[in-house]
Structures are given as C-alpha cells and as structure tokens.
Amino acid sequence: MNRNPDTINLEIDRIVAEIGAGPGDVIPLLHALQKTFNYLPESALRRICEITEITPAAITGISTFYPQFRHTPVGQHIIHVCTGTACHVKGADLVLDAFRRELRIKEDQDTDPEGQFTLKKVSCLGCCTLAPVVQIDDVTYGKVKPDRAANILKDFLLFQGKGSDAIKDRIDNTEEDSEIKIGLGSCCIAGGSGKVRRALEESVDGTGVHVRIKRVGCVGMCHRTPLLEVCLPDKEPVLYDNVQPQEVKNIVIKHFKPKTVGKRIKNTTLNMVENILEGNSSNGMKRHALHTRDPNIEAFIGRQQHIATEFSGQMDPLDLEEYRSKGGFEALEHCLAKCSPDDIIQQIKKSGLRGRGGAGFPTWQKLQETRQARGDKKFIICNGDEGDPGAFMDRMILESYPFRVIEGMLICAYAVGASEGYFYIRAEYPLAVERVKAALKKCLRRARGAGTLLGGTLFEKTVPGPCKNFSLNEFSLNIMEGAGAFVCGEETALIASIEGKRGMPRFRPPYPSQKGLWGYPTLVNNCETFATVPWILRNGPEAFARLGTEKSKGTKVFSLAGKILRGGLIEVPMGITIHEIVEEIGGGIENNRPFKAVQIGGPSGGCVPAELAHTRIDYEDLTKVGAMMGSGGLLVMDDRDCMVDIARYFLTFTCSQSCGKCTFCRIGTRLMLDILDKLCAGKGSSQDLKNLEEIADKTKQGSLCGLGKTAPNPVLTTLKYFRDEYEAHLKGTCPARRCKALITYSITGRCIGCTICAQNCPAKAIPITPYKKHEILKEKCIKCGTCKGVCPNEAVVVT
Asked: Who wins on pLDDT, 697 or 357?
C-alpha cells in the first residue's frame, strides 16, 4: 500500500521523538521502522538521517549487517521456517520446500504472486523440542509436516487476529483454592497451549464453575505439551498432557461442579446431547490423567535439581506477589542490609559458580575485576542473545523467571557498583521481550506506588547496612532487542551492538570489565548465571558447591532436543553423563532407532559419538573429547543422520554469521563449507579431507573471537569419530541416505497399486497406475520423501 510522503515523515518523526536521535539509537529506530512498514523503505532511512545525528553511512552499514532487517517490500504476512539444528535433522528443508510449492513462490523469489505471504528462513525460533517449527507473524506451529503446509495457512487465515495462540495477561483474582495451571511458554504455545487456554476460559465461563486459571512458565516437559494441571485442595495434582481444545470442557466438568443446581442440570443436558451427536460414549475424554508417580514423568524429572529453574511450572511468570511469597528478593534485601560488595563476591567465589554462557569463566572473577576497575560510571548487561540453533535455555529463563533474573542483576549491580543495566534479548524471542518488559513495569509501578521494593513491599527507600554509593531508586534497567546476528553473543560484539554499531568483536585486553559499554567498566553475564545468583545467596554457597564436580560446581540447564523420546528443558547437576541424560532422562531415541551421536554446545560444539556416552558433562571432560559446554544445547541424533551433512549444516550457519572482521574466520569457514558441499554432492577427493583438516586447524588458531575459534569443532569431531562416513562420500554413497545428490528413490515389488504415493507426490513424479506397480520418474523426483512416508506397504526404498 502506497503512503503519502508527508504521512510517512510524520510517522518517522513520531518514532524518533519516542526513541531518540543519537547514534546509539539506530538499532531501536530500525526495529521501529520495520515494525511500522514491514521493511525499511529508503525514503524512511533518508528521513532518519535528516532529523537525527545518524549518518547515511552508519544507517546503511548497520541495516545491512544485521539479518533481521529487510530492505525490500514483503507480503502482508511473514512465514518464518526455523532451520535450527533440531528442525534441520527433522526435515526443515522439506517443510520450507512444501510452503514454497503451496504458495507458488519461485526459487529466486520469497513472496507469493498475490503478495500475501513472504517466506523466510530463521536460524532458530527456540522451540526445538517441537521441531520442525514454523512461525507466521506471531503465531507459532510445532511438529510441522510437509503435507500440513496448506492446512497451516488455512488455520492462520482463519484465526488471525482472534488471539488463538496469543497470551492475555489476565490474572484471575478469584479466592477459590482450586486452580488449573496451564504452561504458556513459547514451546507450549507452539504446541497449541494458546488455543487450549482459550478453550479453558470459555469452558470455565460457560459451565459456571469457580476455579482459578493460572498461567505458569516452562514446565520442562515440552514433549508433552499442551499441559494442564488440575490442583484441588487436599488432593494430589492431576496432570493432563497433549490436551486438545475440544477435550478441555470435559476435563473441567470431571473435576469441578457448578455452584448452582441450574448450571449443573444445563451442563449435564448439554453433555448428553454432545455425546449423542458425536457418538462418543466415553464422555469425550480421550486420555488418562497423569501423576508424578508415572514412570515416564519420574524418569524425566527425578534426576533434576532446580536452582536456576526453581519452582519450575509452579509460578506465574508475571505475578510479583507470588514471586515474593516464594523467597523472591530476599537475597537482594539481605545483600543490601548486611553484605558489602566484597562479601557478595566472596560468597560467589565459595560457590564455584562459573559463567553459564559457554566459556565457563569464574563468575566471581568477573565481578571482582569490574568492582576494582576505575570509572565514573559502570554498566551491567544480561546477555540473552541466544543465537545457538538448537538452544532455548535463555528464552525459557527470561519467559518463566523474569523477576529472578532482575534480582540477580540488581545483586551483581550492587556488587560491582553499576548504575545502569541492559537486557540484550534476541528479537526472535518476542515473548521473552514481552515478559521482561512487563516484569520491569511491575517492579517500577510497585516502587513508585509504595516508594519501596523490599521488606513490607518491594524495595526499602533506605536499607541500613553497608550498601553505600548504590541506590536502587537511581538504578535503571533497559531492554535492547538484538537483530539476528549470532556473533553478538560474543560480549564485545554485543556491546558494540548496544552502542549502535555493527556487531563486530574487538581485540582483548582490555576486557569489558575494564573498558566496556561506551568505554566504561561493564559486567556481562548470561541469563542463567544471573538467575542462579539469588539462590546461592539465599541458600548459602556451600549448598551450591556440594553439587557437581570438583571444578564444575552446581547445576546446568540444558535443552534436550533432536531424535529424543522425551525432549524438553532440564536442569541437572554437573558431572552427569551423556548416557544418563539421553537414555534415562530422555528415554532414549524415538522410534527405537539406534543412538548415533549427540551434538553439544551449538555451532561451536562438537559431535560426540554414542561410544563416548560415558563422558561426564562438565567443562573439563567435554573439552577432552573435542566438544564444549557452550550455552547448553544438546542435540541427539540417530542412525538416519549424516555426520557430513551435520558438519556442513553448522559450517553453513557459522559462515553466514561471520562478521568478516578477521581473515581466518571469514575465509576459513567459506573454504571449509565449499569442501563439505563437494563431499555431500559426491564430488570430493581424498585431498579434500586433508585440506579440510588443515583449514580447520588454522581457522581455530588464527580467528579473533570465539565464533571463529570454535567454528571448526563440528568438522574436526566428525572427521575424528565418523571418518568412515567421509570416506563413503568420496565413493559416492551416503550411509545415512540423507544427502540428496547421493540417493535414489524407487518402488519395489511390494507395491499394491493403491496410488496413494502418486496422489501425494508434490512433484507429480509418480504416474497414477491403479492396481499396478508404480514407478518414480527420476528426472522429476525431488527426493522429498513424501512417497516413502505415505506408502502403507513399505514399498518405497531409498538407495
């Protein structure tokens, strides 16, 4: 739709007035422009430069650096197909192709002919346990199959604007002791919890029962979403998994009775009519209630110990009073009243806490260095730029425990003497951004209304004790949304991004603790690290240090995804083995396939074979086998996953995310990817393997930041542990039958001529010949696997 230039200018002027006109405001301004126009019109960018201090060179350099920003018009709705690790191994490429075919989008274009939908890849949507995942605008769909593309588009168009998956911040203030808890994290919503909540609200209103509907954060059991937990006084909670909207009413009626006789009669009558019409003699119930004694649930949660995820699945993420009732802000109050900054740092040192963002640097040391650094001002930053495909720990913590992260940041701000803080959160995590914003507003509203935040309310105006030169009333916390650059997970690149620059790492020293944001001493820590600090100070450093191993103390939050039976979010003591996580907590490989490998640490991690499943998961032992802790992503693979393809996948990602500043990373990742492309196409040579190892070693040694130094890890570990697969590719075969250039689909004599494969083939590569053996036209076959998936007699084979 064309807009009047004067109207556009007025809109831009309003945006600038709200956000700011300084060079550091450029990224928030670009976000606001794109939200308004759906892309970045050139005229709008020129107007920004006319009325602000931002130069054309700066706005061009920044808007073209960050993948989140678009410079060409798009459709009315944007479809993001997640191509993260978990989605990749579960067929994201086939899902992408299916949407492209359904919308008739040509290979060199991204928008359908009607201009209604634009199709985009996204590196990770953080809903890895429900892979493959597709997001249309703000509606997320999980476990997407290629043949569901048309139905998903219809569902979106039918429910758009009706809030089917949206979250209403509705807190039910009923005094009833009974409540129904529903998980409403991103994974839950992708699994359909938004629609279930809507059905729940309608059922409660329609039946007249009195029960509190309580939104809770991540339950961890993402493989069983949507989840409803019915809590009745003096009774054990009852859990329902994989709940569908049409089942909700009967769950409500089963456990709750309306207060009035009229409502009871009405509900009974309606129920009888519905059962007669639907022919359902089981009162509509399709599943049995679950209890925590259920062996599968006990196996999943029994080994876990919740510290960063304390009260998992029990608290409303945005209920400040509930957080306080469970010990929230007690640690902060204690620190301000009775601890000096040095006391806090010493307690963190005794706990043995190490940074949970990947490198495992001692947390106390960062605190102390920032504390001792000289500067007129100091900053604190929460790094929530979780760009690792296959990881969603930070998203879950920010969505489910925003007050805990805020408390941890305030404690650390007091310890180092910071006066201002930032949340840096991926723009791909809109719910995390929304929850943190809401939590901050609630804290501010409470502080302004009562003048306090702790003690009788939330913060005391003046807390007696050693807290000098630190005022909660003067401390400010801001939110900065990232723009899709994985490299901004590196702390100096993140700082550059907040400053309104291209996210490019710089040489260290000086470290951010000495010279960080705008040249001032800055403490940068991960979400999980901040979330752990209040627990340590509330329960004592010794309690934390008793968990884990000698050098890797405490617990670690992991995302468990891929070809695993029970995927989800887990928090376990350091030192647990790969076998214990995969086989005991995760329940082994889905469909009883053989366990092949686990990829640990995201694109920077390594692939550890099943033969090394006895390896302990801690900072030291993972390094010994060529992997790394990273932020905590665990991707499980089975015998159908090609390790050469996995290495290529990660190199494709790191190559595209390289900032280009240093030659080893910029050129090294590109050269490695070129070789892997050749191997997957069956065009490699033995010399390619030698060159691959040499380039990987040099890239590891010569790169500037962690992205380049660790990018070769997937290549080196797959070469070390799965060299036979590389050698098979040299001979033109893919043992896992994954690489399309090296496989062929054919139909055997088991074919019964049912025509199902021909009817479902998206490429029309199978002529319909009823009651006769079908044939696949090789020149038309796109090797999507649809025929193999729908064949009722297993007549389709891949060779």
From this structure: 697
